Amino acid sequence: MSEHVVDELHGYASGHLTAQEVSRVEEHLRECAECQQEADQLDAIGSTLSVPSSSLFAKLWTKLAGTGRFEHLLEKLAQLFDISVNEARALLAKVDDPGTWESQLAPGVWLAPVEAGPKVDGAFTVLVRIEPGAVFPNHTHGGEEQVFILEGGYLDVSGKEYWRGELDVRAKGTSHSFTGLPGLGCLCAARMYPVHGEGA
After folding, report:
1. Distances (CA, A) of 162 to 1, 114, 124
2. Which of 16, 39, 87, 112 has the lowest tally of Cβ within 10 angstroms?
3. 42 neighbors 10 (Cβ within 8 angstroms)
4. Residues of the chain below pLDDT 70
5. CA 78, 81, 83, 84: dihedral to nearest 10 degrees?
6. CB atoms < 10 A from the CB of 89, how many?
């Protein structure tokens, strides 16, 4: 009798074996009661696992489409701009509308001004859309800058990547530029204090 095939049963059950491997496993199972018992137990376990219905996937897809994809980020966005969660939700409801992005800072870099609350008075508050590979120009901060990534991510000039859900904080007087990640680009919210006479 050939060697036991217990280690290959998961691949056999999930359809990840080649035709030749399947043939060998099935031939062995016909001759080996021990491996057949293992295979039966694996089948019994598999039959108890429920597969999510297509309606469940449809509901999940609907929830994650549009503004729903930002629900877990709303509170942090509201804090960044000193606005309510409902105002943050309404703000993000506009990001898929091309008309929101009328101000182009640089090729592939678009801005949408945000009216923030009193706690961030004097700051330059915007939503920023950076197309894949587009560069947000080098700039110097007149105060602390905070950039909150809402979608995708960017590569900072230092070589560090920032991704969805991360907050990039820069101290007053620092300078940098960053590039939208290839294939993804970036949607972010920024609160910054530009140096007088320089770009944002």
Report:
1. 56, 22, 21
2. 16
3. yes
4. 1-2, 6, 14, 45-65, 194-200
5. 0
6. 17
The tokens of 105 are what? Answer: 């800072």
Q: In residues, how long is the chain?
A: 200
Tell me phi and psi for residue 55, to 5 degrees.
Answer: -65, -35
Query: pLDDT tens-digit profile of 99-112?
Result: 999 899 999 999 99
Element (H, E) at 122: none
SS3 135: strand
Domain boundaries along the sequence of the chain: 6-48, 65-192
Which of 183, 128, 151 has the alpha carbon at shortest distance from 70?
151
Q: What's the confidence (pLDDT) of residue 198?
A: 43
Q: Superfamily assignment of 65-192 in CATH?
A: Jelly Rolls (2.60.120.10)
**Could you tell me which of 158, 151, 136 has the C-alpha nearest to residue 187?**
151
Distance CA 25, CA 5 (A): 6
Tokens of 92: 């993000």
